[in-house]
Amino acid sequence: MVTGRKIAVLRERASGETRVSATPETVKKLIALGAALHVESGAGLSASIPDEAYREAGAEVGEAAAVVAGADIVLGVQGPDVALLSGVAPGAWVVAGLDPFGQRARVDAYAQAGIEALAMEFMPRITRAQSMDILSSQSNLAGYKAVILAADTYGRAFPMMMTAAGTISAAKCFVMGVGVAGLQAIATARRLGAQVSATDVRSATKEQILSLGAKPIFVENVAGIEGEGAGGYATEMSEEYQKAQGELVSSHIAKQDIVITTALIPGRPAPRLITDAQIASMKPGSVIFDLAAPQGGNVEGTVADEVVERHGVKIIGLSNTPAHLPADASALFARNLFNFLSAFWDKEAGGPVLDAEIGDAIRLTQGGRIVHERLLG
Ligand code: NAD
Questions:
Q1: Cα of 64 to ligand 1 centre, how many Å?
Q2: Residue 263: helix, strand or coil by DSSP?
Q3: Any idea what the Cα angle at residue 332 is, between residues 258 and 196, rounded to 5°?
């Protein structure tokens, strides 16, 4: 007889991390698949989930060592330190956002410990994996929060207001990079009543910007990326394009009150989109939120987790924006992990069995070795 797989949920230990990788909802659903859920005491506290809620959902709540002892699968938002994992079942899975390039030593340690590490940020962008995509779910919330925090820092209102004391004009908000985060930033700024414009290098985003009621601002004289771009991702642009983009930004940005930057290129530092000279052209009191801060920033002078003031303009960026919405970010992250495990759950095997398309894309280590092609050679 096959016994239920033991799934462990640890408290996150990275500084500033407030999320948790399972919620009472996903605990219940995993138990319904036949798994036994063990949650570390206090794991959900910073996301407003008390131990009791996990118990009511059917989990055992205990200390870390007991939670991981004999576990077949360990869930995380970020990768747990390998020292926490002594006692897991041989070949146990770690399923989390593993930051494989930034945390290479930890990935090597997983290999040495015989752990199978599955990096959820490497989930391929295919239709059936959309519901498992942690980058999308977390970027969406980050795009929202960036606008809220920028609005809070801005010393003026977003919407136009006609009052007895006179009219206040609407804030002008410019979103640079229209992926998942940028789209949500546009929608949020629009809901708050700002006049929104946006830019990207991928031509397909023009329609998306228009459909959200914002104005596309695009480089016209040098070709950008046709359509969606491979996998929806941008690449580094030519020098000629960068020059044309710089000129376009210079002419537009001086009139903006709020700028939200979200531009990323997979596997590369974030592209520099705003220079100090461009910041100097902005009105005092303007606010820039640099969502690319953890990847080096789109804006000259960004310091993650600090408010930097340059030429009277406030530049903000956080090292972990989704962690500032712990409850919703955890709910979506936990569902991504559940959707992943349940899609591959094999009743006969009593647990998940991956296929090659997704398995090979996310598996970093197996059988004591690094196996992912992006980490080899
Ligand atoms: P991302 O985080 O890689 O980058 C953010 C945005 O920055 C992108 O739109 C990119 O084109 C843009 N950018 C890069 N360099 C720039 C520059 N120099 N100037 C201006 N903009 C620049 O992107 P993302 O949020 O992950 O999503 C990108 C696309 O992928 C979207 O169209 C999204 O809908 C799609 N997507 C598909 C799936 C799926 O099918 N499973 C999942 C997630 C995202």
A1: 37
A2: coil
A3: 20
